[in-house]
Specification:
The chain is an alpha/beta fold. The chain folds into 2 domains: about 20-95 and about 335-555, Alkaline Phosphatase, subunit A (3-Layer(aba) Sandwich), CATH 3.40.720; about 100-330, 3-Layer(aba) Sandwich (2,3-Bisphosphoglycerate-independent phosphoglycerate mutase, substrate-binding domain), CATH 3.40.1450.10. About 30% of the residues lie in helices and about 15% in strands. The two termini are about 35 Å apart. The structure holds 3-phosphoglyceric acid and manganese (II) ion (2 copies). It catalyses: (2R)-2-phosphoglycerate = (2R)-3-phosphoglycerate. Monomer. InterPro entries: Alkaline_phosphatase_core_sf, BPG-indep_PGM_N, Metalloenzyme, PGAM_B_sf, Pgm_bpd_ind.
Amino acid sequence: MGSSGFSWKLADHPKLPKGKTVAVVVLDGWGEAKPDQYNCIHIAETPVMDSLKKGATEKWRLVRAHGTAVGLPTEDDMGNSEVGHNALGAGRIFAQGAKLVDLALASGKIFDGEGFNYVKECFALGTLHLIGLLSDGGVHSRLDQLQLLLKGASERGAKRIRLHVLTDGRDVLDGSSVGFVETIEKDLAELRSKGIDAQIASGGGRMYVTMDRYENDWNVIKRGWDAQVLGEAPHKFKSAVEAVKTLRAAGANDQYLPPFVIVDDSGKAVGPIVDGDGVVTFNFRADRMVMIAKSLEYADFDKFDRVRVPKIRYAGLLQYDGELKLPTHYLVSPPEIDRTSGEYLVHNGVRTFACSETVKFGHVTFFWNGNRSGYFNPEMEEYVEIPSDVGITFNVQPKMKAVEIAEKARDAILSRKFDQVRVNLPNSDMVGHTGDIEATIVACKAADEAVKIILDAIEQVGGIYVVTADHGNAEDMVKRNKSGQPLLDKSGNIQILTSHTLEPVPIAIGGPGLGPGVRFRSDVPNGGLANVAATVMNLHGFEAPSDYEPTLIEVVDN
Ligand SMILES: O=C(O)[C@H](O)COP(=O)(O)O
Ligand SMILES: [Mn+2]
Ligand SMILES: [Mn+2]
């Protein structure tokens, strides 16, 4: 116990034993919705997940995974991996980046902080560059926040502004990029009418340009670097609206738009990043900004040839990695997600194994641990990353690495070297985001088969399983009107929903190690993802810290 009285020691659970192997399985993007033809989880053969649902009613329930239950500003905000895994791992609800930025913009404090003042030094002689995801998805960024940043920066002396836009189509409908670019172009035109030299300088689709994560494919960052910093891209246009329309007409979707630069009448790029400029990445979410932040900030960098490394003043909208302190400068302090369940459990002797494939690896490590990279105690933990396929959209390989992840988990369980074995199965989410219904059905089946491999291993060692999800996605693949009817586009086709949903997610507990009297309580009807951490701590034989959201389980005498 430290001088403050704080202790990592967890109290023993009065009834539940220690020493059981607990598998924690997170199905990414697996929500619960009414069964219809657009519910891929319903259509897919998912006997394992079905049997958990149809089994004991006291061992399966739904939990909230969106909106304020995971620290998002409103109940209209769909859940996402960052806030979902943060809540699952931290056991408490923290006001998340989206909300913190809203507050800082509303109070104006964002413009008084160290980060903005640092970047502002460039306003006199240099250009302010804003790089980020252009949509109102609210998962990585928000258009209204960008608009307020533009307004605030221009009112505080930015005279030359260049916007580098990444089109979305993943957290919002495919095709919506055109409207977002038109909207921001109007804002930039208004700034120009006030004498500010403001325009879009480059762009590209988020999955092909800049927004890779967990070092899956540095080429994605390089494409962005070439367009944003060097002013070089295979496609050159006079306007961003023309760029997006033309590239879409040529067959690209919003997520995968090739990189383009905007050029002037003489064919020169209008906004490469040069010495003396300021740069702000305006996404609040961390995972897909870490790689660009490294490329903009690190002097020692060998991931690709940057060709020219301008001396810039760079700030993130938030600090994206609390362990690496990356980037050094940021406009809004991130949520301080401390005392996560992973850290507690390691301090209490729980040996932990975590695994996913690259595209979700950080979800069960970095996000789970409160946006902190690395181990708490390498002697007690092992994190295994299975390389994801690179350079494909996952509808092409909907099974992804589900079997490989499950087999690693199985081996970890059977080795008896670990008390907690934690995985993320990406399929329903990653394939759901492609909007390909047939492939998403295959993906859901693959995830279900992977769950079976893990549950079988738990059976063999007399362990316990907790199977849950981080938010919805594959359970609804169509955009609906307020009364729930599918929406049609102008040609009478349904509008495919590539994004997450507002649906709750299942949680199931079981396994031979689960005491006979353990069941879900009935007095936490609004339980959400943040209630899962205390639940898992109990299953390891510990009481959760008193400020954690309450456990979902109770032990009744049989
Ligand atoms: O980054 C993404 O892939 C999507 O915007 C959100 O998906 P995730 O929250 O499941 O990662
Ligand atoms: Mn997710
Ligand atoms: Mn997703």
